[in-house]
Amino acid sequence: MQEIPPEKKNTRLIWLIVLAWVAVLGLCAVCIAGGLAVQRSLLPNGSLTRTALVQYFGTPVTLPPGTLSPVPSQPLATLPATTSAPRPTATSSTPTATFAPPLWLDPPPGKIAFTCTDGEVDQVCIMDATGENLRQLTSGDRPAYYPSISPDGDRVIFSARVDRNFNIFSMDINGGDLQQITEGMGNLFAPEIAPNGNRIVFTQESGGQTAIWIMRMDGGNARPVSEESGSSWDPTWSPDGSRIAFTGQLDGGVQIYVIRADGSRLRQVTHGIQDITGRSSWSPDGDQLAFNAGVAGDRNIYMIDVDGDGLVQLTDGGDNINPSFSPDGRWISFASARDGNFEIYVMQVDGSKVTRLSGDPRPDWQPRWGN
């Protein structure tokens, strides 16, 4: 047999190496292209940015009306329209009806209570801060709204109308043990339990004027925080329970204020910001407040130092309302109509990594984060 010259052996070896590398590179290109295609198909509707820690997967789940799992509860009287918290409506006649909930590799902590919509009726819903385990806590044709979660994470407190007035109720985190806390005190909105769990702050309305009030957990010893003239509403406790932030019209335009829980040291935080609405939210370290401002249809989320410095705009477009800090201070939940319908979103405190949590064709709004 004729022996193959060494130079030909070397040539064949070189070609084998080249072909092997071509095969490897081709396989890598196929994998990359496939991965990009999958990623594009899995991006959630409405997300402005994408975090490497969040992956969406599976077939989008259709959520037709009535698919939330209501928990039987004591019926509440019908809530009429109110100027305290106008109900948002979809900005598109065909909102997105399919949505796949996210899977988090570094999940946000806690739960988010919010106002959902059952038909044309406002109800209280709750879900994990990951968007999982969403459930409706109230049901029927007697609405409820303005929910927030107790500091220990065991109960939800909210406003609902009984007879001719709005009153404050609480229930356990699963929708049971419904308790009416107030009666005969006028119209009461935006209740929130103090960090130490012994008091409730809320908005009291009488004769067209609103004021910030405090009471015990059983509804006793209810009284205004201060006797300042003008209207104030939508209070929220500081993390240490010593101060209360609220929205008010005390000296001209509507701005954010802070006052001590004993009624002393009233101080204006924002200056010259137009069209502030709704509850603000304290950062867990007590140094900053998040709030929304802007005309309906073009509202955005802002953050400001409690001393009035460091104003930052976190969103840009999409009609964004109702910010609420996460317990660890890394995230802010909010409602946005950027998809044509108000849904619940979260973003990091710098405005990045916007992620949609809810996907019901009906409005979801007023999120409040809790443990």
What does this structure look like?
- The protein has 371 residues and is mainly beta.
- The chain has two domains: 1-42; 61-370, Neuraminidase (6 Propeller).
- The chain is built from one helix and 28 strands.
- It has a four-stranded antiparallel beta sheet, with no helix packed on it. A four-stranded antiparallel beta sheet has the order 8-9-10-11, with no helix packed on it. Strands 12-13-14-15 form a four-stranded antiparallel beta sheet, with no helix packed on it.
- Strand 20 (276-282) and strand 21 (288-293) form a beta hairpin.
- It is elongated.
- Mean pLDDT is 82; it is low at 35-84 and 90-97.
CATH class of the largest domain, please?
Mainly Beta
Q: In DSSP terms, counting alpha (H) and pi (I) runs of 4 or more, how many helices?
A: 1
Mean pLDDT: 82
Q: Helix and strand succession?
A: HEEEEEEEEEEEEEEEEEEEEEEEEEEEE
- For the record, give the distance between the C-alpha atoms at the N and C termini, rounded to a whole number: 82 Å
